[in-house]
Specification:
By secondary structure, the chain is of the alpha/beta class. The protein is built from 17 helices and 17 strands. A 7-stranded mixed beta sheet has the order 6-14-13-12-11-7-8. Strands 1-2-3-4 form a 4-stranded antiparallel beta sheet. Strands 5-16 form a two-stranded parallel sheet. It binds ligand PLA.
């Protein structure tokens, strides 16, 4: 094995020693007898382990080359020698691997980003028109710390409904955030600051970044049951039991609609029961609403869980994202709102949310907020938007049908009904990690290792290929 030593760390035999082994390969030693060689091949990552004598030989070579290189770099290296490479993000890392693959048939059903039936990213017509209208604007000033007030006013009307009492009573504290992620993170920091002893209950499974967000905000988390792999549906009794057994006054993270990754939402009746139990237990509901409009194609209908809890008098918090439903992914436009008991309380809460934002990013970006408020404040543009959201949701539904149809046509013995039962952007396929790895390695199909398929990346052009690949690995 030709070791072309490239130093990344001075100390021999630490995790962070990464050497180039031969072109395209990286060699990492975790101990003297355990060397992992990673080869990036057609975007996929192939790990092979060296053991025993070969590992020891390679380990000694790594140590020698590190010592040599260490001497060479002694005067400059060292400040960050304790820093080891971060693990790949389970979702965004899939996009990186997909981009590195040069195979003509490759398919990306990893990240939840909407594509049209040609597989191309979409700029909504309502967004183009809004951009045309704001193009001549000379206003490039800083927004206030809490962002555009016009934007947040329209965003909370979308979440809670135009006629909501909490809005008329001015009891909602709202700030513009760095999309849905920023909304969750701002809330987690707020929770830590003003309820420092509290925990957060997170559904199993959930969007992987939820765990990171509350961990980095230093809020301890617990899990509650949500999905039943046996039925590929909601584990309603498990959920209710866990909600009941949590200490009174606990914080719960709920997905408002189109649950990620499962595509399984409680029914209206079930939401009502959950809300009642939350009342009895005095729990705090935080709704992450990243997909309003993507579940049913109707933004009002998708606000149903929020409305049920609100009408039951809960003081909920809600994180909104306009990444998916307006296709404003890179604009990072979202909103965090917190229902308060009085207008005075809401002024105080808003001021504290702004206070948390100030030393982090000072104030949020202007352009996306301008686009959203231009659309939501103009009845014609808003109608056009509703139509376009429905088109996106309908295309996804038709791809669910096409995927199931093709799997059944291929003679798959497995039951694929959940593909059409689940809603929103994702299909939680039930494929194992090993099957996912085969899909990527043998068929150049990229998805997260939990078997989640982003239906937004499926098209009439690739659905047969995808179905065939899924069938082959699940036979
Ligand atoms: N909340 C949930 C439940 C999400 O699925 C996502 C995005 C967000 C919040 C954050 O979105 P935003 O910050 O872009 O508004 N989930 C994606 C992308 C679409 C991602 O992982 O960042 C996903 O593929 O799961």
């Amino acid at each position: 094995m030709a070791l072309k030593s490239v130093l990344t760390c001075r100390t021999p035999f630490t995790l962070s020693k990464v050497l180039e082994v031969s072109s395209g390969e990286r060699c990492q030693s975790t101990s003297a007898s355990n060397i992992v060689v990673q080869k990036v091949e057609r975007g996929g990552r192939i790990d092979r382990k060296l053991e025993g004598g070969r590992a020891a030989m390679a380990g000694r070579a790594i140590a020698r080359s590190n010592m040599r290189a260490g001497k060479r770099f002694m005067s400059t290296a060292g400040w960050w020698s304790h820093v080891t490479p971060a693990p790949r993000d389970p979702i965004l890392g899939v996009t990186e691997a997909f981009l590195a693959d040069t195979h003509p048939s490759k398919v990306n059903v990893g990240v939840g980003a909407y594509r049209n039936d040609k597989g191309k990213p979409v700029v909504l017509q309502c967004v183009r028109e809004a951009e045309r209208r704001i193009a001549g604007s000379k206003f490039m000033e800083y927004l206030p710390m809490g962002g555009s007030v016009k934007f947040t006013e329209f965003a909370i009307r979308l979440a809670y409904g135009d006629e909501a009492d909490v809005l008329n009573d001015k009891r909602v504290a709202s700030v513009q955030t760095l999309s849905g992620t920023g909304a969750c993170r701002l809330f987690a920091d707020f929770q830590k600051r003003f309820k420092p002893e509290s925990l957060v209950y997170i559904p199993i499974p959930t969007w992987s970044n939820h765990h990171n967000i509350w961990r980095d905000a230093r809020v301890e988390s617990r899990l509650f049951r949500y999905y039943d792999p046996a039925t590929k549906g909601l584990d309603f009794s498990g959920l209710m039991e866990d909600v009941k057994n949590a200490p009174s006054g606990s914080f719960f993270l709920l997905h408002a609609c189109a649950h990620n990754p499962t595509g399984v939402d409680p029914s209206e009746e079930q939401w009502k029961e959950i809300s009642q139990l939350f009342k009895e237990k005095g729990h705090f509901p935080l709704f992450d609403m990243a997909y309003q409009g993507f579940a049913s194609g109707d933004t009002e209908k998708d606000g149903q869980a929020i409305r049920i809890f609100m009408n039951d008098g809960h003081q909920i918090a809600c994180g909104q994202s306009f990444a998916k439903n307006m296709g404003l992914y890179g604009q990072r436009v979202g909103c965090l709102s917190v229902i308060c008991s009085t207008p005075q309380e809401s002024v105080a809460v808003k001021s504290q949310l702004q206070q948390i934002a100030r030393p982090m990013y000072s104030n949020p970006p202007l352009h996306g907020a301008e686009i959203v408020s231009t659309i939501l404040s103009d009845p014609e543009l808003k109608d056009l938007w509703h139509k376009e959201v429905k088109e996106m949701a309908d295309r996804i539904i038709s791809m669910r049908e096409a995927l199931r149809f093709n799997l059944e046509k291929l003679g798959s013995k497995l039951n694929w009904q959940h593909v059409t039962d689940q809603i929103g952007m994702f299909c939680y396929s039930g494929l194992t990690e090993e099957q996912v790895d085969r899909l990527t390695r043998e068929f150049h199909v990229y998805l997260t290792r939990n078997g989640r398929i982003s239906m937004a990346g499926v098209t009439t052009g690739n659905v047969e290929y995808l179905a065939n690949a899924v069938h082959e690995v699940s036979k």
